[in-house]
Amino acid sequence: MKDQTIIVGAGLGGLAAAIRLAAAGHSVLLLEKNQRIGGKLNLVREQGYTFDTGPSLLTMPWVIRDLFAAAGQRMEDYLHLDQIEPICRYTWPDGTVFHAWQRLPQLIQEIERISPHDIHGLFRFLAYSARIYAAVADNFLLKPFDGISELLTPRLLRDGPQIDSLRSVDAAVRAYFRSPYLRQIFNRYATYNGSSPYLSPATFNVIAYIEFAEGGWYVRGGMYELGRALLRLAEELGVQIRTSTTVAEVLRDRAAACGVRLECGERIPAARVIINADPRYAYAALLPDHERTARRLARLEPSCSGYVLFLGVNRTYPQLAHHNIFFSADYPREFQAIFQKGVPAVDPTVYVATTCLSDPQHAPPGHMNLFILVNAPALGSRVNWSQEAVPYRDLVLAKLERMGLDHLRQHIVYEQIWTPHDIQSRYNAAGGAIYGLSSNNPFSAFMRPPLRAHGLRDLYFVGGGTHPGGGIPLVLLSGKAIAERVAADSAKKSLH
Questions:
Q1: pTM above 0.85, yes or no
Q2: Bridge-based pairing state of the strands 350-353 and 323-326
Q3: Which numeric CATH code is attached to 103-142+150-212?
Q4: Which DSSP category does 191 fall into?
Q5: What's the CATH code, domain 5-39+223-300+442-495?
Q6: Res 219: pLDDT
Q7: ω before 55 within 30° of 0 (cis)?
Q8: Which of 215, 255, 444, 495 has the lowest tally of Cβ within 10 angstroms?
Q9: In this structure, what are the phi and psi dihedrals at residue 85, rounded to the nearest 5 degrees?
């Protein structure tokens, strides 16, 4: 069908775009190279254990409600969200433990326990980060964006100083908190988009505000239930979905995208093509006439990648919460290793998710499922993961044992390792970078490939590699922005 829209990649951005376009009356064909939809939001099920493989926390749930409403449905008829308390358990090498409660009285009690003079700093920080949110939400997060020229408005000039883009996340955090423990907690939010708190602009303190103000949520049954719900909604709207279908090339005609060629040789015509994959991969692999753009994007700094362990253990650790962070002793040194030296940290911060505490069916009785994630440099560094994967596994597990998970290695009955190579190959993520480009300078947000491809009409990008960035709500918002762009471009065509 020549009037149809083809979407390459069935991650959350592709699904969101498909749903909104289908709800608006478009014919949509969604092509996914993997056997399952969802992109990085996916799962592993083995030997009685279930693991979420990607996002493990949901913020801004109203974005999902808005997506379902656009299709005339209620989110609650498809999904159930649970607010997790505490949202995270933090542990330091010296034995200090902090529970980040979402309920304000408990949170204040925790801060008072380790740093009473920082209670006032918390409220000042939340007021400061709320101003950032007010300044960026309408201008940047919630509207389509194809370049910095679209932000040069009177409102930006008025609100620009509120964005706080000229100092780092860490510099701003230090202005509000004295405790090194609280500073490390609030610096961690820069890693939500794969960046360093010592390099990324203080604008990204908005991430902490969103989590504290709007809460952190878990999708009952596992985060992959969100993917299943969106798949169901898309199919109800008539979206055609083909999995295990690899696109080899975007077809062009007179400087416009006109369809795709599959790896098997099949050609499918389309009125427009939307790519839900890392634009760096797309320009290099799917658009052979755009080598210059591919080279330019390849020179930009990628976000960090990840080193992942999926562990099934035949015992329980009562001290674990649903989300856990085991901090490094030297946070600046950790990020210097990843972003400046291009090597894994010798003392990494380790994230552990145990979804069986919220969904007991995710592990056999008396067992636990441990999803372990460590920030790692993107590919292109000096790391030979084929040689380093197992030694680094031993380093990470030894650290967890030192920090309270006694005899962990003796209780592992199921194990799988993913390195940045696996992330790259599974999701066409250039260099294994989880979040596309890093946000390690004040202009990074404006250097992301735009929603519309430059120099090629009827070609669009959606997902974490484009505007407004990575993470579930932002990726879903990119689907909304694409639907608005397509509607505007279609209206222009009808006038000619």
A1: yes
A2: antiparallel
A3: 1.10.405
A4: G
A5: 3.50.50.60
A6: 98
A7: no
A8: 495
A9: -130, 130
